[in-house]
Amino acid sequence: GQQLNQSPQSMFIQEGEDVSMNCTSSSIFNTWLWYKQEPGEGPVLLIALYKAGELTSNGRLTAQFGITRKDSFLNISASIPSDVGIYFCAGHVTSGTYKYIFGTGTRLKVLA
Amino acid sequence: GAVVSQHPSWVICKSGTSVKIECRSLDFQATTMFWYRQFPKQSLMLMATSNEGSKATYEQGVEKDKFLINHASLTLSTLTVTSAHPEDSSFYICSARSHPGASGKTLAYNEQFFGPGTRLTVL
Fold first, then answer.
1. B58-70: b or e for each residue (b if 16 or more CB lie within 10 Å)?
2. Which of B46, B45, B43 is nearest to B56 (CA)?
3. Does B49 contact A99 at a Cβ distance shorter than 8 Å?
4. How confident is the model over A53-83, as pLDDT tens digits?
5. Could you tell me how many CB contacts below 8 A there are between chain A and chain B?
6. A44 to chain B: nearest residue by CA?
7. Is B86 helix (H, G, I), strand (E, B) or coil?
């Protein structure tokens, strides 16, 4: 099935460092979302973006909806060990179907 | 926030048996529920979209006779894996889309809330 391209695929960083990941698509999306998934659990919504150019923060997380509506990025500032997990972007395809297309995921490991 | 539960959280079964997985929205009504499959170290792949009171819409390549979906109420959808085989072993995750205003809560329209997943192992 269709997937969004997400990069990097994995990251190993030191505690306290900032993290940046992005998601790109060949298609336009109306909504971009960022989720975090921990092992053996379902994804948990971190940030939802509804307008092109929108920049939204949630604590140490900041995400932006690209102007072209084909990309989005997520930044995590001052990473802590509990930030470990897999981060997925998701695009909302069209208003009619309500389907999400998920990115390939970025696996984050934080070294204390 | 909105809570979605899944039952069971894990199941082990013999090849050839059928397994039913339940997805419930606990504190809101969900007009639409989605079923995803996730293999180890991979992303979530949408299997089907389930609308209350109507037939599910399956994604290309997903066998509707193999994965039976029933969405009998605004708070419950079930996925039955029929005649399961080892290659059906996977992590199955459901999500529910909020029905605006139905629960009395202010939930973002179109937002999907995910269940905790069900790990299926077929021996």
1. bbeebeeeebbbe
2. B46
3. yes
4. 999 999 999 999 999 999 999 999 999 999 9
5. 58
6. B114
7. helix
